[in-house]
Amino acid sequence: MATLNLDLLKGLCESPGISGREDQIRSLVIDEMRPLVDTQSIDILGNVIGVKRGNGGPKVMVAAHIDEIGFLV
Questions:
Q1: Residues ≥6 apart with Cβ < 8 Å to 68
Q2: Are 53 and 71 in contact (CB under 8 A)?
Q3: Which domain holds residue 25?
Q4: How many angstroms from the chain centroid is the CA of residue 40?
Q5: 69 within a domain of the structure (yes/no)
Q6: Is residue 66 part of a domain?
Q7: Can you give 23-73 as a three-state secondary structure string?
Q8: pTM here?
Q9: pLDDT tens across 20-70, in order?
Q10: How far apart are CA 23 and CA 71, in angstroms?
Q11: Into how many domains does the chain fold?
Q12: Whole-angstrom distance, CA of residue 15 vs CA of residue 7
């Protein structure tokens, strides 16, 4: 059974990332995802896309939001 990475969870929770200003949380996600994927890219909307090449098994997509609800004052 995998152990929970509390430092990563804390970093994700504490990084600001309100909609339209996700630069800090995006950087954290990119750094954490880098060793897990073969290629990474960011599209024009700021989505982080990681591709892990397989060897003929089923194709799987994992999608998640990195932004949070917030207000700018």
A1: 16, 17, 18, 19
A2: no
A3: 6-51
A4: 11
A5: no
A6: no
A7: HHHHHHHHHHHHHHCCEEEECCCCCEEEECCCCCCCCCCCCCCCCECCCCC
A8: 0.81
A9: 889 999 999 999 999 999 999 999 988 999 999 999 899 999 999 888 888
A10: 16
A11: 1
A12: 12
